[in-house]
């Protein structure tokens, strides 16, 4: 788990640097360049275009009421942290993490790999099926996955097969469900779950190695939106200023 976090952070380092650089450029232009245009437009008795006026209004509001914004952010941070510490809050937070584009899929597969590995080790050591599900699920440190595995455990308690119960949890891929079914029929559940863990781990390694390439389309959209805001805020007043000069 620690290695996975390190790999994800390493892959996100460059995209994060690019986004921060673009945001810094936007802040500099909003705070220094756009107000200069406003003063220059006043000398020509011209009106700034509405995108630039919106940017200036946001800048003026932020500079005038920064302490209110900072206070709201601090209160919001502690309120969210307190909510996450509740059972419902942790469940919602863990569920939301798994829905993050690109990264959520990696976190889910990594957790399922740990579950399959833990279940396989426990089952091969003679631990009961229900206890294997419970202990392996609790070791994942994800309330949402643990709740879905509890559904799996309840189905097993009601007499359903391990494969049917795993399918009811809505967590496992069809390939893993098929492998689990073969394991039940052949009496090799532990070895099939070990193979499932290997399968998930290979997928996680592949997706982490290609994480930067997967994020690039999202990064292009974000940067494009930021550049569009800059273009509307800077080049529109320059164009109208040239028209006013003539």
Question: What does the secondary structure layout of this molecule look like, with pairings?
Answer:
Blueprint: H1 2-43, H2 50-64, H3 66-84, H4 87-97, H5 103-124, H6 129-138, H7 143-157, H8 162-168, H9 174-186, H10 189-209, H11 211-245
Question: What keywords describe this structure?
Answer:
11 helices, 246 residues, mainly alpha, 0% strand
Output the helix-strand order.
Answer: HHHHHHHHHHH
The profile of the biggest β sheet is: none
Relative helix content: over 70%
Q: Count the DSSP helices.
A: 11
User: Which regions have little confidence, pLDDT < 50, spanning 5+ residues?
Assistant: none
Rg over CA atoms, rounded to whole Å, is 27 Å
Q: What percentage of amino acids are in beta strands?
A: under 5%
**How many individual β-strands?**
0
Structural class designation: mainly alpha
- What does the average pLDDT come to? 82
**Global outline:** elongated
Distance between the termini: 64 Å
